[in-house]
Amino acid sequence: MSTVRLLVLGVVRARGEAHGYAVHRQLMSWRVDTWTAVKPPSIYHAVKQLDREGKLVTPGLATSPKGPNRVLYRITEEGQREYFALLEAALRSPDIEEFGAGIAFMQSLPRRRVRELLTEQLATTRQIDADLEEMKAQWPDPGAPPHAQHLLELWRGVFRSNAEWAMDMRERLAAGEFCFAED
Amino acid sequence: MSTVRLLVLGVVRARGEAHGYAVHRQLMSWRVDTWTAVKPPSIYHAVKQLDREGKLVTPGLATSPKGPNRVLYRITEEGQREYFALLEAALRSPDIEEFGAGIAFMQSLPRRRVRELLTEQLATTRQIDADLEEMKAQWPDPGAPPHAQHLLELWRGVFRSNAEWAMDMRERLAAGEFCFAED
DNA sequence: GACACACTAGTCAGAGTTGACTAGTGTTGC
DNA sequence: GCAACACTAGTCAACTCTGACTAGTGTGTC
Protein backbone atom coordinates (compact mmCIF):
# COMPACT_ATOMS: atom_id res chain seq x y z
CA MET A 1 0.00 0.00 0.00
CA SER A 2 2.67 2.51 0.95
CA THR A 3 4.26 1.93 -2.45
CA VAL A 4 1.14 3.06 -4.36
CA ARG A 5 0.66 5.98 -2.00
CA LEU A 6 4.20 7.19 -2.58
CA LEU A 7 3.84 6.80 -6.33
CA VAL A 8 0.52 8.68 -6.41
CA LEU A 9 1.68 11.50 -4.15
CA GLY A 10 4.91 11.78 -6.12
CA VAL A 11 3.16 12.08 -9.47
CA VAL A 12 0.54 14.59 -8.28
CA ARG A 13 3.26 16.63 -6.58
CA ALA A 14 5.50 16.64 -9.65
CA ARG A 15 2.68 17.68 -11.99
CA GLY A 16 1.18 20.26 -9.65
CA GLU A 17 -2.31 19.13 -10.56
CA ALA A 18 -3.53 15.83 -11.93
CA HIS A 19 -6.66 13.74 -12.37
CA GLY A 20 -6.84 10.01 -11.72
CA TYR A 21 -6.27 8.88 -15.24
CA ALA A 22 -3.27 11.20 -15.70
CA VAL A 23 -1.63 9.59 -12.66
CA HIS A 24 -2.49 6.19 -14.04
CA ARG A 25 -1.03 6.96 -17.45
CA GLN A 26 2.14 8.49 -16.05
CA LEU A 27 2.79 5.44 -13.88
CA MET A 28 2.10 3.05 -16.75
CA SER A 29 4.49 5.00 -18.99
CA TRP A 30 7.11 4.34 -16.29
CA ARG A 31 6.39 0.61 -16.53
CA VAL A 32 5.47 0.63 -12.87
CA ASP A 33 3.59 -2.62 -13.41
CA THR A 34 6.94 -4.25 -14.29
CA TRP A 35 8.80 -3.33 -11.12
CA THR A 36 5.92 -3.30 -8.61
CA ALA A 37 2.58 -5.10 -8.19
CA VAL A 38 0.67 -1.81 -8.67
CA LYS A 39 -2.40 -2.14 -10.91
CA PRO A 40 -4.93 0.45 -12.14
CA PRO A 41 -7.66 -0.11 -9.53
CA SER A 42 -5.08 0.26 -6.76
CA ILE A 43 -4.09 3.64 -8.14
CA TYR A 44 -7.67 4.96 -8.14
CA HIS A 45 -8.18 3.52 -4.68
CA ALA A 46 -5.07 5.26 -3.36
CA VAL A 47 -6.13 8.59 -4.88
CA LYS A 48 -9.54 8.44 -3.16
CA GLN A 49 -8.02 7.36 0.11
CA LEU A 50 -5.47 10.20 0.08
CA ASP A 51 -8.28 12.62 -0.73
CA ARG A 52 -10.37 11.40 2.21
CA GLU A 53 -7.34 11.77 4.48
CA GLY A 54 -6.72 15.34 3.39
CA LYS A 55 -3.37 14.55 1.77
CA LEU A 56 -4.84 15.58 -1.58
CA VAL A 57 -7.52 18.20 -2.31
CA THR A 58 -9.73 18.78 -5.31
CA PRO A 59 -9.51 22.43 -6.34
CA GLY A 60 -11.96 21.86 -9.20
CA LEU A 61 -13.23 19.90 -12.15
CA ALA A 62 -11.44 19.86 -15.48
CA THR A 63 -14.14 20.07 -18.09
CA SER A 64 -12.63 18.12 -20.91
CA PRO A 65 -13.79 18.53 -24.49
CA LYS A 66 -13.46 14.79 -24.98
CA GLY A 67 -14.59 12.22 -22.47
CA PRO A 68 -16.21 12.71 -19.07
CA ASN A 69 -15.21 15.52 -16.70
CA ARG A 70 -12.32 14.61 -14.47
CA VAL A 71 -11.64 15.51 -10.88
CA LEU A 72 -8.34 17.37 -10.50
CA TYR A 73 -6.21 16.72 -7.43
CA ARG A 74 -3.48 18.79 -5.80
CA ILE A 75 -1.17 17.88 -2.92
CA THR A 76 -1.67 19.56 0.50
CA GLU A 77 0.84 20.48 3.22
CA GLU A 78 -0.09 17.30 5.03
CA GLY A 79 0.37 15.42 1.79
CA GLN A 80 3.87 16.85 1.42
CA ARG A 81 4.76 15.63 4.90
CA GLU A 82 3.42 12.17 4.10
CA TYR A 83 5.30 12.21 0.79
CA PHE A 84 8.67 12.89 2.38
CA ALA A 85 8.04 10.42 5.20
CA LEU A 86 7.13 7.69 2.70
CA LEU A 87 10.07 8.61 0.47
CA GLU A 88 12.62 8.35 3.25
CA ALA A 89 11.08 5.09 4.50
CA ALA A 90 11.12 3.69 0.96
CA LEU A 91 14.81 4.47 0.39
CA ARG A 92 15.60 2.68 3.64
CA SER A 93 13.29 -0.27 2.98
CA PRO A 94 14.62 -3.74 2.17
CA ASP A 95 11.38 -4.39 0.26
CA ILE A 96 12.40 -4.16 -3.37
CA GLU A 97 9.10 -2.66 -4.58
CA GLU A 98 9.04 0.06 -1.98
CA PHE A 99 12.73 0.74 -2.50
CA GLY A 100 12.15 1.05 -6.25
CA ALA A 101 9.43 3.63 -5.72
CA GLY A 102 11.85 5.55 -3.48
CA ILE A 103 14.51 5.54 -6.21
CA ALA A 104 11.95 6.86 -8.69
CA PHE A 105 11.55 10.03 -6.62
CA MET A 106 14.94 10.29 -4.90
CA GLN A 107 15.68 13.56 -6.70
CA SER A 108 13.24 15.48 -4.54
CA LEU A 109 15.70 15.04 -1.65
CA PRO A 110 19.16 16.62 -1.39
CA ARG A 111 21.94 14.42 -2.80
CA ARG A 112 23.63 14.11 0.59
CA ARG A 113 20.45 12.86 2.23
CA VAL A 114 19.95 10.19 -0.43
CA ARG A 115 23.49 8.96 0.17
CA GLU A 116 22.81 8.70 3.89
CA LEU A 117 19.62 6.77 3.26
CA LEU A 118 21.32 4.41 0.81
CA THR A 119 23.96 3.76 3.45
CA GLU A 120 21.21 2.83 5.90
CA GLN A 121 19.60 0.67 3.23
CA LEU A 122 22.88 -1.18 2.73
CA ALA A 123 23.32 -1.74 6.45
CA THR A 124 19.79 -3.16 6.77
CA THR A 125 20.16 -5.41 3.74
CA ARG A 126 23.47 -6.77 5.00
CA GLN A 127 22.01 -7.30 8.44
CA ILE A 128 19.19 -9.37 6.94
CA ASP A 129 21.73 -11.39 4.99
CA ALA A 130 23.67 -12.04 8.20
CA ASP A 131 20.49 -12.94 10.10
CA LEU A 132 19.51 -15.45 7.44
CA GLU A 133 23.00 -16.95 7.58
CA GLU A 134 22.71 -17.34 11.33
CA MET A 135 19.19 -18.76 11.09
CA LYS A 136 20.46 -21.33 8.59
CA ALA A 137 22.90 -22.69 11.12
CA GLN A 138 20.01 -23.59 13.40
CA TRP A 139 18.63 -26.29 11.08
CA PRO A 140 20.60 -29.45 11.53
CA ASP A 141 19.31 -31.43 8.52
CA PRO A 142 19.98 -29.85 5.13
CA GLY A 143 18.79 -32.92 3.16
CA ALA A 144 15.24 -33.14 4.53
CA PRO A 145 12.17 -31.19 3.43
CA PRO A 146 11.22 -28.41 3.45
CA HIS A 147 14.87 -27.53 2.64
CA ALA A 148 14.49 -24.41 4.70
CA GLN A 149 18.27 -23.99 4.65
CA HIS A 150 18.35 -23.86 0.87
CA LEU A 151 15.36 -21.53 0.77
CA LEU A 152 17.19 -19.16 3.06
CA GLU A 153 20.11 -19.29 0.58
CA LEU A 154 17.70 -18.43 -2.22
CA TRP A 155 16.62 -15.32 -0.32
CA ARG A 156 20.15 -14.39 0.64
CA GLY A 157 20.92 -14.23 -3.05
CA VAL A 158 18.18 -11.64 -3.50
CA PHE A 159 19.41 -9.46 -0.66
CA ARG A 160 23.04 -9.70 -1.73
CA SER A 161 22.08 -8.73 -5.25
CA ASN A 162 20.12 -5.74 -3.96
CA ALA A 163 23.02 -4.69 -1.76
CA GLU A 164 25.34 -4.70 -4.76
CA TRP A 165 22.90 -2.57 -6.71
CA ALA A 166 22.59 -0.09 -3.83
CA MET A 167 26.36 0.19 -3.53
CA ASP A 168 26.66 0.89 -7.21
CA MET A 169 23.96 3.57 -7.01
CA ARG A 170 25.67 5.20 -4.04
CA GLU A 171 28.88 5.40 -6.03
CA ARG A 172 27.09 7.02 -8.94
CA LEU A 173 25.71 9.66 -6.59
CA ALA A 174 29.16 10.27 -5.17
CA ALA A 175 30.48 10.62 -8.72
CA GLY A 176 27.99 13.43 -9.33
CA GLU A 177 25.57 11.54 -11.54
CA PHE A 178 21.92 12.75 -11.65
CA CYS A 179 20.52 16.15 -10.68
CA PHE A 180 19.19 16.67 -7.17
CA ALA A 181 17.12 19.17 -5.20
CA GLU A 182 19.42 21.84 -3.82
CA ASP A 183 22.29 20.80 -6.09
CA MET B 1 -2.99 -17.33 -2.45
CA SER B 2 -1.76 -20.37 -4.37
CA THR B 3 1.32 -20.38 -2.13
CA VAL B 4 -0.74 -20.79 1.06
CA ARG B 5 -2.96 -23.37 -0.60
CA LEU B 6 0.03 -25.46 -1.64
CA LEU B 7 1.57 -25.21 1.82
CA VAL B 8 -1.68 -26.19 3.56
CA LEU B 9 -2.44 -29.09 1.22
CA GLY B 10 1.15 -30.29 1.48
CA VAL B 11 1.16 -30.31 5.27
CA VAL B 12 -2.25 -32.01 5.61
CA ARG B 13 -1.23 -34.57 2.98
CA ALA B 14 2.09 -35.32 4.65
CA ARG B 15 0.54 -35.74 8.11
CA GLY B 16 -2.47 -37.75 6.91
CA GLU B 17 -4.71 -35.84 9.28
CA ALA B 18 -4.30 -32.40 10.81
CA HIS B 19 -6.24 -29.63 12.53
CA GLY B 20 -5.77 -25.95 11.76
CA TYR B 21 -3.36 -25.19 14.53
CA ALA B 22 -1.18 -28.21 13.69
CA VAL B 23 -0.81 -26.88 10.14
CA HIS B 24 -0.06 -23.46 11.52
CA ARG B 25 2.58 -24.79 13.91
CA GLN B 26 4.24 -26.96 11.31
CA LEU B 27 4.55 -24.05 8.89
CA MET B 28 5.89 -21.75 11.57
CA SER B 29 8.47 -24.37 12.57
CA TRP B 30 9.59 -24.22 8.94
CA ARG B 31 10.01 -20.45 9.22
CA VAL B 32 7.53 -20.04 6.42
CA ASP B 33 6.99 -16.45 7.55
CA THR B 34 10.65 -15.76 6.67
CA TRP B 35 10.53 -16.92 3.05
CA THR B 36 6.89 -16.10 2.18
CA ALA B 37 4.30 -13.49 3.25
CA VAL B 38 2.10 -16.23 4.77
CA LYS B 39 0.59 -15.25 8.14
CA PRO B 40 -1.63 -17.18 10.57
CA PRO B 41 -5.03 -15.78 9.47
CA SER B 42 -4.21 -16.66 5.86
CA ILE B 43 -3.56 -20.25 6.87
CA TYR B 44 -6.91 -20.61 8.62
CA HIS B 45 -8.61 -18.90 5.71
CA ALA B 46 -7.02 -21.32 3.21
CA VAL B 47 -8.02 -24.35 5.29
CA LYS B 48 -11.67 -23.27 5.36
CA GLN B 49 -11.64 -22.41 1.67
CA LEU B 50 -10.18 -25.81 0.71
CA ASP B 51 -12.77 -27.49 2.92
CA ARG B 52 -15.63 -25.62 1.19
CA GLU B 53 -14.21 -26.62 -2.20
CA GLY B 54 -14.05 -30.30 -1.27
CA LYS B 55 -10.24 -30.45 -1.44
CA LEU B 56 -10.19 -31.26 2.27
CA VAL B 57 -12.76 -33.16 4.35
CA THR B 58 -13.39 -33.32 8.08
CA PRO B 59 -13.59 -36.95 9.17
CA GLY B 60 -14.19 -35.98 12.80
CA LEU B 61 -13.41 -33.91 15.85
CA ALA B 62 -10.33 -34.46 17.96
CA THR B 63 -11.44 -34.05 21.54
CA SER B 64 -8.37 -32.66 23.19
CA PRO B 65 -7.81 -32.92 26.94
CA LYS B 66 -6.41 -29.41 26.93
CA GLY B 67 -7.91 -26.55 25.01
CA PRO B 68 -10.99 -26.48 22.78
CA ASN B 69 -11.93 -29.35 20.45
CA ARG B 70 -10.29 -29.10 17.08
CA VAL B 71 -11.60 -29.99 13.64
CA LEU B 72 -9.44 -32.60 11.91
CA TYR B 73 -8.90 -32.33 8.14
CA ARG B 74 -7.84 -34.92 5.59
CA ILE B 75 -7.00 -34.48 1.90
CA THR B 76 -9.43 -35.79 -0.77
CA GLU B 77 -8.78 -37.17 -4.26
CA GLU B 78 -9.64 -33.75 -5.66
CA GLY B 79 -7.27 -32.23 -3.14
CA GLN B 80 -4.46 -34.49 -4.36
CA ARG B 81 -5.03 -33.35 -7.92
CA GLU B 82 -4.94 -29.71 -6.83
CA TYR B 83 -1.83 -30.40 -4.77
CA PHE B 84 0.13 -31.81 -7.70
CA ALA B 85 -1.10 -29.10 -10.08
CA LEU B 86 -0.03 -26.37 -7.63
CA LEU B 87 3.27 -28.12 -6.95
CA GLU B 88 4.22 -28.33 -10.62
CA ALA B 89 3.13 -24.73 -11.23
CA ALA B 90 5.16 -23.58 -8.21
CA LEU B 91 8.36 -25.30 -9.37
CA ARG B 92 7.98 -23.57 -12.72
CA SER B 93 7.03 -20.18 -11.26
CA PRO B 94 9.39 -17.19 -11.39
CA ASP B 95 7.69 -15.87 -8.24
CA ILE B 96 10.19 -16.57 -5.48
CA GLU B 97 7.58 -17.26 -2.80
CA GLU B 98 5.64 -19.72 -4.89
CA PHE B 99 8.85 -21.33 -6.09
CA GLY B 100 10.02 -21.73 -2.50
CA ALA B 101 6.82 -23.51 -1.53
CA GLY B 102 7.36 -25.84 -4.50
CA ILE B 103 10.90 -26.64 -3.33
CA ALA B 104 9.56 -27.43 0.12
CA PHE B 105 7.48 -30.28 -1.29
CA MET B 106 9.49 -31.27 -4.37
CA GLN B 107 10.17 -34.71 -2.91
CA SER B 108 6.61 -35.85 -3.55
CA LEU B 109 7.44 -35.85 -7.28
CA PRO B 110 9.89 -38.21 -9.00
CA ARG B 111 13.46 -36.88 -9.20
CA ARG B 112 13.39 -36.82 -13.00
CA ARG B 113 10.25 -34.69 -13.05
CA VAL B 114 11.71 -32.15 -10.66
CA ARG B 115 14.75 -31.80 -12.90
CA GLU B 116 12.51 -31.17 -15.89
CA LEU B 117 10.56 -28.53 -13.98
CA LEU B 118 13.73 -26.82 -12.76
CA THR B 119 14.92 -26.70 -16.36
CA GLU B 120 11.67 -24.96 -17.31
CA GLN B 121 12.09 -22.62 -14.34
CA LEU B 122 15.56 -21.68 -15.54
CA ALA B 123 14.35 -21.03 -19.07
CA THR B 124 11.55 -18.76 -17.82
CA THR B 125 13.82 -16.86 -15.45
CA ARG B 126 16.40 -16.29 -18.18
CA GLN B 127 13.70 -15.19 -20.58
CA ILE B 128 12.51 -12.58 -18.07
CA ASP B 129 16.08 -11.37 -17.66
CA ALA B 130 16.41 -11.04 -21.44
CA ASP B 131 13.04 -9.24 -21.70
CA LEU B 132 14.07 -6.73 -19.04
CA GLU B 133 17.35 -6.15 -20.88
CA GLU B 134 15.45 -5.46 -24.06
CA MET B 135 12.93 -3.22 -22.33
CA LYS B 136 15.80 -1.21 -20.86
CA ALA B 137 17.05 -0.32 -24.31
CA GLN B 138 13.75 1.42 -25.02
CA TRP B 139 14.32 4.19 -22.47
CA PRO B 140 16.59 6.78 -23.95
CA ASP B 141 17.36 8.84 -20.84
CA PRO B 142 19.11 6.94 -18.05
CA GLY B 143 19.76 10.06 -15.95
CA ALA B 144 16.18 11.25 -15.52
CA PRO B 145 13.59 10.08 -13.00
CA PRO B 146 12.08 7.62 -12.44
CA HIS B 147 15.31 5.81 -13.35
CA ALA B 148 13.28 3.00 -14.83
CA GLN B 149 16.42 1.66 -16.51
CA HIS B 150 18.20 1.27 -13.19
CA LEU B 151 15.12 -0.24 -11.59
CA LEU B 152 15.03 -2.85 -14.31
CA GLU B 153 18.69 -3.59 -13.48
CA LEU B 154 17.73 -4.01 -9.84
CA TRP B 155 15.15 -6.63 -10.83
CA ARG B 156 17.46 -8.34 -13.27
CA GLY B 157 19.82 -8.92 -10.36
CA VAL B 158 17.05 -10.77 -8.51
CA PHE B 159 16.24 -13.00 -11.47
CA ARG B 160 19.87 -13.76 -12.21
CA SER B 161 20.46 -14.67 -8.59
CA ASN B 162 17.43 -16.99 -8.64
CA ALA B 163 18.63 -18.61 -11.85
CA GLU B 164 21.99 -19.37 -10.27
CA TRP B 165 20.30 -20.92 -7.29
CA ALA B 166 18.07 -23.07 -9.52
CA MET B 167 21.08 -24.26 -11.52
CA ASP B 168 22.85 -25.22 -8.35
CA MET B 169 19.81 -27.12 -7.11
CA ARG B 170 19.49 -28.95 -10.43
CA GLU B 171 23.09 -30.07 -10.14
CA ARG B 172 22.50 -31.36 -6.63
CA LEU B 173 19.60 -33.43 -7.88
CA ALA B 174 21.72 -34.81 -10.71
CA ALA B 175 24.39 -35.68 -8.15
CA GLY B 176 21.90 -37.84 -6.28
CA GLU B 177 21.31 -35.51 -3.31
CA PHE B 178 17.94 -35.77 -1.45
CA CYS B 179 15.48 -38.67 -1.45
CA PHE B 180 12.58 -38.63 -3.90
CA ALA B 181 9.30 -40.43 -4.49
CA GLU B 182 9.97 -43.49 -6.65
CA ASP B 183 13.73 -43.34 -6.07
C1' DG C 1 -22.96 7.49 -43.30
C1' DA C 2 -22.60 3.73 -40.45
C1' DC C 3 -20.14 -0.14 -38.62
C1' DA C 4 -16.25 -1.94 -36.28
C1' DC C 5 -12.56 -1.13 -33.54
C1' DA C 6 -9.50 1.09 -30.30
C1' DC C 7 -8.76 4.25 -26.76
C1' DT C 8 -10.20 6.92 -22.60
C1' DA C 9 -11.56 6.82 -17.90
C1' DG C 10 -12.81 4.68 -14.88
C1' DT C 11 -16.32 1.30 -11.45
C1' DC C 12 -17.63 -2.84 -8.85
C1' DA C 13 -18.49 -7.15 -6.49
C1' DG C 14 -16.19 -10.62 -4.64
C1' DA C 15 -12.06 -12.46 -2.82
C1' DG C 16 -8.04 -12.13 0.04
C1' DT C 17 -5.26 -10.12 3.89
C1' DT C 18 -4.20 -7.97 8.23
C1' DG C 19 -3.61 -6.04 12.95
C1' DA C 20 -5.81 -6.45 16.85
C1' DC C 21 -8.36 -9.01 19.79
C1' DT C 22 -10.44 -13.11 22.61
C1' DA C 23 -10.56 -16.79 25.71
C1' DG C 24 -9.03 -20.83 27.83
C1' DT C 25 -4.78 -23.39 29.97
C1' DG C 26 -0.45 -24.34 32.07
C1' DT C 27 3.33 -22.54 35.07
C1' DT C 28 6.45 -19.94 37.73
C1' DG C 29 7.77 -16.93 41.48
C1' DC C 30 6.85 -15.22 45.83
C1' DG D 1 -2.36 -20.33 47.06
C1' DC D 2 -2.64 -16.92 43.81
C1' DA D 3 -1.16 -13.13 40.63
C1' DA D 4 1.16 -12.43 36.51
C1' DC D 5 2.70 -14.11 32.46
C1' DA D 6 3.18 -17.02 28.42
C1' DC D 7 1.31 -20.25 25.37
C1' DT D 8 -2.57 -22.45 22.74
C1' DA D 9 -5.97 -21.88 19.24
C1' DG D 10 -7.96 -19.40 16.96
C1' DT D 11 -11.76 -15.12 15.33
C1' DC D 12 -13.15 -10.64 13.43
C1' DA D 13 -13.98 -6.25 11.31
C1' DA D 14 -11.88 -3.37 8.44
C1' DC D 15 -9.14 -2.75 4.78
C1' DT D 16 -7.04 -3.83 0.21
C1' DC D 17 -6.73 -5.97 -4.20
C1' DT D 18 -8.28 -8.02 -8.48
C1' DG D 19 -10.50 -9.60 -12.81
C1' DA D 20 -14.08 -8.39 -15.22
C1' DC D 21 -16.97 -5.09 -16.71
C1' DT D 22 -19.07 -0.40 -18.32
C1' DA D 23 -19.73 3.45 -21.09
C1' DG D 24 -18.53 7.33 -23.76
C1' DT D 25 -15.46 9.13 -27.72
C1' DG D 26 -12.64 9.32 -31.77
C1' DT D 27 -11.36 7.21 -36.34
C1' DG D 28 -10.61 4.50 -40.18
C1' DT D 29 -12.84 2.37 -44.02
C1' DC D 30 -15.96 0.54 -47.33
Structural account:
Chain A has helices at 2-15, 20-29, 32-35, 40-52, 77-92, 96-105, 111-136, 148-174, and strands at residues 18-19, 56-62, 70-75. With 183 residues, the first copy, chain A, is mostly helical. Chain A folds into two domains: 2-101, Arc Repressor Mutant, subunit A; 110-174. A three-stranded antiparallel sheet of chain A has the order 1-3-2. Chain A is globular, with a radius of gyration of 20 Å. The two termini of chain A are 31 Å apart. Chains A and B meet through helix 6 and helix 8 of A and helix 6 and helix 8 of B. The structure holds a DNA duplex (30 and 30 nucleotides).
Features:
mainly alpha; three-stranded antiparallel beta sheet; 3 strands; 183 residues; DNA-binding; 8% strand; homodimer; 2 domains; Arc Repressor Mutant, subunit A
